[in-house]
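call fold(seq) -> tokens
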Amino acid sequence: MTSMATNFTLILVLFVIKWSASDSTCPSYCECYSLRTQIVADCTSKMLAAVPNGLPLNITTLRLGYNNLTQIHNSTFAGKSLSLLERLEINDNLLCYIEPGAFHELTRLTRLDLENNRIRLLHPDIFLSLSRLWKLILNGNPLALQEDGPFLVAPQLKVLELERCEIGEVPPLAFQNLSELHTVRLANNRLTTVNLQGPYLMHVAVGSNSLSEDGLVLNSPALIVLDLSECGLRRLPENVLRTTPNLQRLKLEQNLLSSLDVGILSMIPHLRMINLTGNEVTFLHVDIFQHNNELTHLDLSKNPLQLSTDGGFIHSSSIQVLSLAACNLSRVSAETFRGMPNITSLKLSDNKLRSLSNLTFSVLPNLEYLSLDGNRIFTVLADFVSGLSKLVYLNLSRNPIQLSTDEPFLKSNSLNELILDECFLETVPATTLRLLPNLTSLSLSNNQLPTLDVQTVQVVSDLNHLAIDGNPLICDCPLLPLWQWCSIRQCEKSIVRCKRPRGRSWVVLSDLVCEDGSVSPSEDFDIDLEVEMVDIPIPSRRPPERLTI
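ret:
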């Protein structure tokens, strides 16, 4: 059993105590159990046409998802004595009608999930008696919002999800009786206009809608997160930024923005993260973020950027995470990054870079994570990262790199993880890692290696993770020393198959006896398509692969 499976089993043992099958307090077609602080009755996927009788009186969570319920009447929960119920899930049913007083007796309800039903209309007062309800999920219902009145009256509702509801407009009065609302999700509707206001509104997501030029109206001074992805925007909505002065995270992925006006972001001085992935940005003024001294994350991936002739780019001393992946860049220089000296994570994946000077990243003394995968880099100067004393992660995968037969590949006293996957490597010389004394993880997956000389890895005393899967390995005596080294060093688990013997795991090496009489030191490995190397967990130090805000 794998460690993951063992951990999962332990979690179940510790946190789940099931009723016996014969317990009369739980309907036979449901499963009742205790999960942490919740008493759960799980009746999902039982083809139920009605809420079952005989539910335990002390349940706090009732799961009725993936059944055939079509209506909920005032009598549905009446008399069932579910006064302790806090969470109710009726997602993925056939609900088309809910009577206004249906939830009247569920006074302790805090979360209600009605996702993916057929609900078109809800009475505004249907949740009025639920003074503790704070999260309502209505995604995937063909809802219609009233034009001249409130959508719902729910005094304590804080999170409202209305994604994929075919809504065409959010009228000004729609949410006026939801005074405590702080999160609204309206993505993937048919919205052209949205009018939202509220003193506590902090998170608004209206992505994947075709908003008109001035179709978004927000009066939310407390707003922190705004998602405007895939809205067809050609310019930033100035009226929105003016009324959201405390905005910290702005998502603008997959729009039609070609530039940003200098000064427009000065209206949101507390901006910390901005995602512009997949727009049409070719140029940004060097001082575009001069008023955003709290900005730490900038994602410009998948934009056709054109750097100035002198190589200069953005000036911002606060930016720490920068992604310029898939920007069609054929060159970068020290001038590109000189104005951003505090970058710790830089992603330049999937560009057209061919060479790198040893000065390219010299202006980034705090750089820890560098991704250069998917470029056209052929040769790498050994000292191109030698001045980066904090660099711990370097990804050079998917580059046609040529390794010197008699010179070290790189020089770095700080590098912990090196990835050279899919580089068409046919050999890795013994000198390759000689000047990487603190390397702990090396990935050589999916190259063209028939074998790997154990001397290549022996020079690095702390190396404890080696990935060589996806290579056409010849599992015979020349590879045996590497198997022995990996066994003794307890490398992390890796799936490795041989080209010869065809399709076999390299575990076959454990039974191999070579001319000198040497054999594998272990006969207890799992003879499966895996090599079990255990008990040395490696902290995962990965850079943010994409900006998530």
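Residues 3-15 form the longest helix (13 residues).
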